[in-house]
Prior knowledge:
There is one protein chain. By secondary structure, the protein is an alpha+beta fold. Helices cover 25% and strands 25% of the residues. It contains 2 helices and 6 strands; from the N terminus they run E-E-E-E-H-E-E-H. A hairpin with a 4-residue loop joins strand 1 (3-6) and strand 2. The two termini are 20 Å apart. The model has no long low-confidence stretch (mean pLDDT 90).
Amino acid sequence: MSYRTVGADQELVVDCDICPESLEDGDWVSRFATEAEAAEQADAAGWVETDAGTVCSRENLPHRQARTGQAA
């Protein structure tokens, strides 16, 4: 998964490598203490790790192509 650290506590945020989307919980970007916790929540939200990187669950063409391994 693609992560970035934020805040004084260096919490992790999961980012999509296709668009500027970050894993959110309601109106707030989700922050995680560990990579395992972040990956588990991203999995549960339908995010996947592909050769193109971390791909969120959006259903537009670039995201579908990345999830199926097709060239954009």
